[in-house]
Amino acid sequence: MVSTANGQTRAVSNLEYDLLTVLQNKAEALKAYESYIQDAQEMQSQPCVELFQKLQQAEMQQAQEIRQHLQEVMQKGKM
Question: How many Cα atoms sit within 13 Å of 50 on the Cβ side?
Answer without folding.
Answer: 3
